[in-house]
Amino acid sequence: MTPHSTRSVVPWLLAAPAIILLLALFAGPVLILLRTSLYESTGGTGFYRPSSWTFSAYSERLGERYGRGIVVFTVALGVAVAALSVAIGYPLALFIHSLPKRAKALALGAVILPKLTNVFVVLYGVNLLLGNTGPVNRVLLALGLTSEPILLTHNLFGVLVAETYLIMPYAVLVLVPALDRIDPTLTAAARGLGAGPWAAFRRVTLPLSLPGVAIAGQLCLIWALGAFVGPLLLGGPEQATLAVKVQKDSLGYGDWPRAAATAVLSLVTVAVCVALYSRPARALRRIGEARA
Question: Locate the ABC transmembrane type-1 domain: which residues (predicted)?
Fold first, then answer.
C-alpha cells in the first residue's frame, strides 16, 4: 500500500465507528419507521397488520384539510421561531462579544444554564410568568394597559415565547464565536477613517458576521421544525405540530402506522425546508466572504 493510499484510507477508518453508530441509531430506526408507516392500521387498537402494505396513512394525513394545516403550521412556526431566535440572539451575542474574557465566559454560562434544566421545568416557569396571575399580567394591570388579564398561554403567543426561549441560546452560541473571529483592527480602522459606531457596525461587523447568521438560522430552523414541548404545554389544539401529532397518534390513539407516517412527513418537511434555506444561506456566506 502506497503512502498516498494509506493517507486516503486512514480518515475513513477513523470515521468508521461514528458512521456505524449513525447507521445503527438513525438509518435503522428510519427504515423501521418507513416500514411501519406502510402497514394497515387496525383502527386505533394499538396494533397493525404487518402482512398488508398501504399508503392509507399518508393519504389520510395529507388528504384531510386538518392534516395539511398541521404541516403548514409546523413550517410557519419553524420559520417564525428561527427568525425570532436569530433576531433576539444577535444583539445578545454582540453584547457578550464586547465583554472582557471572564465576563464573557460567565455570560455564556448564563445562556447555557437553562439548557441544563429539564425542559418541562423551564416551560412550567414560563407558564407561570405568562399566566393570568403571573408577573407579566400584573405589570400590565398595574400600568393600566389592560383592565383584565390577557390570555398569553395556550395560544400562538405562548408557543412562540416558549420555543424562542428554548432555541435562542443555540443562536447565541453560534453567533458569539462568529463575532469573535472578526479582526478587531477592521472595526478600529473604520472608526479611524471617520465612521461612527453604527456605520462601522453596518459596513464591517454585520457583513463579516453573516456566515455565522446563516449557520445560526439553519440550526434554529431545524430545532424549531421539531417543536414539541412548547406547543404541547403552552399551545392549544390549533397550535398542534407534526411532533405533537406523532405523540397523540401513537400514545393517545394507538394508531402506529399513522404516527409513523406523520413522523416520516416531519423528516421530509425538515429536509425540504433545509434544502430551500440553503440558497439564501449560501448568499449570506458569499457576502461575508467577499467582505473578509
Answer: 71-277
